[in-house]
Specification:
alpha/beta, Rossmann fold, globular
């Protein structure tokens, strides 16, 4: 009789969006949770007031990191800039969680998906900078009630472009334009180490998406909010499905490495060989 192997849903770490605005969190967080679940993942909510040890322990058992939006702004001191008059207060507790989750994700090559503030947090953590005052040509602060605020042009030869083409929401390799929502007043300026810009607003040049440059590490950040429209928009849904699929693949690779390690240990043990700490896989 064939034994069925249970399907393990990839666990996705999501920090509480904001430590000072429970009203915002109550509205926003369920949208991220629903989008992750609908894509086949299991959301793991990380409290911003948790200790560093608790955050690290939670991250250890997750397969991917989703950095959500927030009404806060990154402290300009982090990227060596003067504070603009319109820059909102920072949220050090949220920033601390983001940094710990990103450190774990980069150390372990776990998939990362940043949304709006999450993209900005990722970019600054990777030593990038932010533009604190966007051009007035396009209304980037259109708000949550506007599903299509402006267009973004996506680099065809990018992971993001390939993901959306595969989902059937973009044409071939010609320049691809996608309508998106928009609720932000800052954006990436200097792109951080190991990242590249892969989408722009064609009307004002504002960077609208970043992705990692390493082929073996899934890292995507978008400046719009796909969680708000994932129930009804194919492109939004595809972003979550692509991310959760990457997390599932990461988990499967981890299980395979563990099995290979156990198998290797079982075959070598009878030979009486003494293995070093590095050979045993410890201390990675």
């Amino acid at each position: 009789m064939t034994q069925l192997v249970p399907i393990v849903k990839p666990r996705i770490a999501i920090p509480i969006p904001n430590s000072r605005r429970p009203d915002y969190t109550a509205r926003a967080l369920p949208q991220y949770e629903r989008a992750v679940r609908n894509a086949g993942g299991e959301p793991v909510i990380i409290p911003v007031a948790a200790s560093n040890a608790e955050i690290a322990q939670a991250a250890k058992h997750c397969d991917g990191v989703l950095l959500p939006g927030s009404p806060a702004d990154i402290d300009p001191e982090k990227y060596g800039a003067e504070r603009h008059a319109d820059t909102a207060a920072s949220d050090p507790l949220r920033d601390n969680v983001d940094e710990l989750l990103l450190q774990d994700a980069y150390n372990m090559r776990k998939p990362v998906f940043g949304i709006c503030y999450g993209l900005q947090s990722l970019n600054v953590w990777r030593t990038g900078t932010l533009d604190q005052e966007l051009p007035a040509i396009v209304k980037h602060e259109a708000g949550s009630r506007v599903d299509q605020a402006h267009r973004v042009q996506i680099e065809p030869e990018s992971r993001l472009g390939a993901l959306l083409r595969h989902a059937g929401v973009l044409p071939g390799k010609s320049p691809s334009v996608l309508p998106v929502n928009s609720t932000h007043h800052q954006a990436a300026a200097v792109v951080g180490d190991g990242l590249r810009a892969v989408a722009w607003c064609p009307d004002d040049g504002v960077k609208e998406a970043l992705e990692g440059t390493s082929a073996d590490h899934y890292v995507i950040g978008v400046q719009w909010h796909p969680e708000r429209t994932a129930d009804k928009d194919e492109a939004s849904r595809a972003l979550f499905e692509g991310f959760v699929q990457a997390a599932a693949e990461w988990h499967a690779q981890l299980e395979k490495r563990q099995r290979d390690f156990e198998s290797s240990g079982a075959t070598q043990a009878p030979q009486g060989r003494i293995r070093s700490r590095s050979a045993s896989g410890k201390g990675k």
